[in-house]
Amino acid sequence: MEDAEIIRQILAGRHEQYAVLVEGYQEPLIHFLRRILGSEEDVLDCAQEAFLAAYRNLTHYSKEYPFRAWLYAIARNKALDLHRKRRKEIIINIDEDMVDHQPRPEDILVEKEQASILASVLLELPEHYTQALYLRYHQELSYKEIALVLEIPVSRVKTYLHRGKDKLRQCLERREIHSGEGKPAME
Amino acid sequence: MEKENLQWSKVFTDKPIPKATLDIFQAQLMAQIAANPIDFRGESQLAARRKCGLGLAFSLMITGVLWTVLWFGSEVVLQGLVFLIKMFAGIPYGSELQQLGLGVLENLILFQDLRNMLYLLWEVVSWPLLGVLSIIAVFRVPNNLYKKSTIKEA
């Protein structure tokens, strides 16, 4: 069943149908939010808030754009708010206690060595480039969908992707990451 | 292109989420929705009503402003329009503009006549109306008024 049809049913009063949308998008949304937020608890809270906000504002949803992109846009805004809040808290903690904040989850969670290097290279990139690259190549969103999620024009999405790839390539070359055949990882 | 996309997708690795976590997440979310379901039909009706109300308020405001301007400042508007028609006499499509302006001018003159008519009508009607209202005020039984008032109830 298509998202638009499910939404039509929910709006008609079949609230339980929202579970279909949740089931379909919860996993990719949590993966997407992990790239913005630090702790797993924050990620799950934010994902839940995003789904609830999407449900409450379902009357404002337009069929012109996919539900997934709309949901991601809501989630991203919520995540950025939470991220700002957390950053403030960290700054206050540093000022008060002079204690270093914990390393980012990417550093802890990535197990393989190359994956770890790639993750740290990704951290060197500006956040909007990483998000655009991740949404395009990992979650396979269209340019239009990415534009909606990041709240930028499609032309800028293309620029972000192009520049993001260039920067990533430069970073990888700088760190001399080579594949087993002796070729650079990204050609 | 596809090969390139595949290469770039390898850059990102997502840590798998346990199924139990996803199930709990979904169950909690749906429980919240079930506890506070939203009346979407009522909401959209309310939104439509709000939209209509706003439209009505806006149109009333515009009509009120226009009416006030025409009522109290029709002379100024008239003179201004005549001046504009004269000013735009030489420009291209000036004749069309002049025609439009003349149309408005005619309506304004009509409006002035209408205003004069309303003034005259008010002069005729106001005295008898005042008389009728005075009779109502004098001959209305004060006792009934007292009965209906909240003073007694209190």
Write a short abstract of this structure.
The complex is a heterodimer of chains A (about 190) and B (about 150). Chain A is mostly helical and about 190 residues long. Chain A contains nine helices and no strands.
Notable features of this structure?
heterodimer, A: 187 residues, mainly alpha, Rna Polymerase Sigma Factor, Chain: A, Arc Repressor Mutant, subunit A, 2 domains, globular, disordered C terminus, B: 154 residues, 84% helix, 0% strand, flat
Describe it for me?
- The complex is a heterodimer of chains A (187) and B (154).
- Chain A has 187 residues and is mainly alpha-helical.
- Chain A has 2 domains: 1-102, Orthogonal Bundle (Rna Polymerase Sigma Factor, Chain: A); 104-175, Orthogonal Bundle (Arc Repressor Mutant, subunit A).
- Chain A contains 9 helices and no strands.
- With 154 residues, chain B is mainly α.
- Chain B has one domain (16-153).
- Chain B has 6 helices and no strands.
- In chain B, helix 3 crosses helix 4 (94-139).
- Chain B starts with a helix and ends with a helix.
- The mean pLDDT of chain B is 80.
- Classes of the chains: A mainly alpha (187), B mainly alpha (154).
- At the A-B interface, helix 2, helix 3, helix 6 and helix 7 of A face helix 1, helix 2 and helix 3 of B.
